[in-house]
Write a structure and sequence with these properties.
DNA polymerase, domain 1; about 35% helix; alpha+beta; Ubiquitin-like (UB roll); 5-stranded mixed beta sheet; 5 strands; globular; about 15% strand
Length: about 160
């Protein structure tokens, strides 16, 4: 039997202290220890991007990251985007521009695009496509996803928030 180790981290603004097995993946910790099931696990090899979360503001493949690597870090999952049941501007742009299909890849795409738009609030379409290259969607040709990111960026700029 493997000895459990203590972990302290913040997920979506809430601090957590848990004891976990050292081999626990961050995706499993988020989904099974915290019951935050919006983070999806697709390929389990870091290729599809469905498991993307933000760690200290940077996109991370949670299926390739041990939970213990998140010790003391601030984690954001898809559940952090809406506020009081209201969609974030990024989520709303995806809704209004049909940027989601089956929805399996959408949480990872939204988290990747949140970080991207914070670094690049006025992106060109080719920059968006490049930023999306780490997220696979099997349902669409990405046109509506790119339109959604453009709309989110324009909405943020027009509102003066310049945040997704």
């Amino acid at each position: 039997m493997v000895d459990k180790q203590k972990i302290h981290l913040t997920v979506n603004g809430t601090a957590y202290d848990r004891e976990i097995e050292p081999r626990t993946l961050l995706s499993d910790f988020i989904r099974h220890h915290l019951d935050l099931t919006g983070t999806h696990v697709g390929c389990e090899h870091g290729i599809c991007g469905s498991c993307t979360i933000l760690m200290d503001g940077l996109p991370v493949r949670s299926c390739l990251t041990f939970a213990l690597q998140a010790e003391g870090k601030a984690i954001e999952t898809i559940e952090s985007l809406d506020k009081n049941g209201e969609l974030s501007p990024l989520q709303n742009a995806f809704w209004e521009n049909q940027g989601l299909q089956c929805g399996f890849c959408t949480p990872g795409i939204l988290m990747s695009m949140k970080a991207f738009l914070e670094d690049n609030p006025k992106p060109a379409r080719d920059e968006i496509r490049e930023a999306l290259s780490g997220n696979l969607c099997r349902c669409t040709g990405y046109h509506d996803i790119v339109d959604s990111v453009v709309a989110a960026a324009e909405a943020a700029l027009s509102s003066g928030t310049a945040k997704a």
